[in-house]
Design a protein that fits this description.
The chain has about 170 residues and is mostly beta strands. It contains no helices and 15 strands.
């Protein structure tokens, strides 16, 4: 289903992969409101800024609060970045342009245990619905504030999609 990528983007004609990166020890991520193409990624190893437009990743330093779910980073002009991850917070599930993501969860009995699997669907503004993921629970997924970027974080790593024709 996924070919060479962690999520299935074959049917998402208006989107392309900007970044696909392994992130060891993923904890949190958050988009800048003032520069929505920049995403802060916090892991147990390091903190990075993903430039979702150019596809570059740069190391940085930041301070963050896991209870209040925000981070401050000098390289992002000390903007208060709302963070989300496996342990809390959320990202927008609908873009300002009308795209949205939905999910279906189901319990399965595998390996002698009850496990939760999730199917994630990308619903384009035109009304088409495509399954982009099926597997164990992802960490977090959702849109940037301007709706031009979509991030999907799971055990394998992060995939960032970029809208092809931004207006």
């Amino acid at each position: 289903m996924y070919g060479d990528h962690w999520i299935d983007t074959a049917e998402l004609d208006s989107w392309c992969i900007s970044i696909e990166k392994v992130v060891g020890g993923f904890l949190w991520l958050g988009f800048s409101e003032t520069e929505p193409w920049k995403m802060l990624c916090i892991s147990s190893d390091k903190t990075t800024i993903f430039d979702c437009d150019s596809g570059t990743v740069t190391e940085t330093d930041c301070a963050y609060d896991e209870d209040a779910l925000f981070a401050l980073c000098e390289d992002l002009n000390d903007e208060q970045i709302t963070i989300a991850g496996q342990y809390g917070g959320s990202l927008p599930q609908t873009s300002p342009q009308g795209d949205k993501v939905t999910c279906e969860r189901r319990n399965v009995f595998e390996y002698g245990k009850d496990l939760v699997r999730e199917r994630v669907f990308f619903c384009a503004k035109e009304g088409t619905k495509h399954e982009i993921y099926e597997g164990y629970l992802p960490y977090i997924y959702g849109f940037s504030p301007d709706g031009n970027y979509f991030v999907f974080a799971q055990d394998a790593g992060l995939t960032v999609l970029k809208r092809k024709n931004q207006h």
